[in-house]
Amino acid sequence: MRLIWGSRHQTSISGSITGDNTSSGEEIRMILAGHLQQLLEIFVPGETLLLDLRSPSDFAKSHIHGAVNLRVPQSFLNIADFHMLERAFADEQSRRAFSRWHKSKCIVFYDRVIEFPWECPTAETLLEKFKREGWRGQCFNLKGHYREFAVSFDKYIAGDRMTQESKDFADSIRQRSPPTQEEARQSQKSYEEWLSRLGAEDRVPGADLDAETFEKRMAAVTEHQQELEAEFMNRFPELYKKARDLQPAAPDKASSDNTKGKGHDNFDRKVPFVEPLARGIEKMQDASGSRTGYSFPGEEGVDKLGERPSQDFDKIDPKPSQNDTAFQGTDSKLSEEYGAGSGDQKKSSRDRTFWKRLRSSGNSSQ
């Protein structure tokens, strides 16, 4: 049963549309690949919770060491408690890793590409749940393409194709003893210094995100949520049904009765399922004409549900990385390994996918 995503109940992704290190909602910050590499050097696995939002096929092929794959729509997140959330993971190891979220110093979300905080509504919704339970850590989104991190810092990449360096890193993690009190204090000090550097850095300049481009990108995010809804219903039908049954009853019974027999028998149940998502869209639309953002990196032929996962990692866009100190030195490696031959693949004749539409709207803003 698909949800109805009308203008009145539009998906809300509250927060800044600037895409820089300004806060979104409950202080979700954007970090670059170099920042994440530094963070992974500070904490041992378990102290940082990494949530991979890509498709299961992409995750199986390549993911950051220690990450767990979370693939759920906003409608489920707003209803589910933590027990239900744990059931949304495909394997027991991932469930155990997620269940220790309260022990994490920080949580990092990443997807195929995230350019603005509001393009990752999962992060905001989960952070609100964590905060309500008393968690006091920090939450971050990896800005840009996941594949840029995977190529630049392949030491931290696990999956079907691992370099020798990444295998050695995984072995060292398994053999590592729990940190001593002194090591824990040093890690905390390094983390605080890392946070200070992150806060002191100037934001990366970018092109204006005009109102038309913003609306296109928001529409793409909303459509992606609809597709996640259908995917989740197919993968976890019982869990989907349980979440749907937990929805509060619609307040206006008369309105519900008027729709019966007209193909909308469940609309009164669907509306509360997405109603909590409507908290920030008006502010974002008002701000879209006046705030500045970032141009969107190009990506060709990527399927939003992972039907062609090989393109996600095999084909690297050789565009220069952002001019940020945390990412300096990665451009040459990207160009050397993947720049040659990047134009050899033919463009797909399929309809434009979620990620390609985002790229198109990003280019139109320049």
TrEMBL record:
Biased composition (Polar residues): 8-21, 320-332
Gene3D superfamilies registered for this protein in UniProt: Rhodanese-like domain
Top-level division of the source organism's lineage: Eukaryota
Biased composition (Basic and acidic residues): 182-191, 259-272, 301-318, 344-354
Region (Disordered): 1-21, 168-191, 246-366
Residues annotated as domain Rhodanese: 44-158
InterPro entries (UniProt xref): Rhodanese-like_dom, Rhodanese-like_dom_sf
UniProt keyword annotations, A-Z: Receptor
Full protein name: Putative tyrosine-protein phosphatase non-receptor type 6 protein
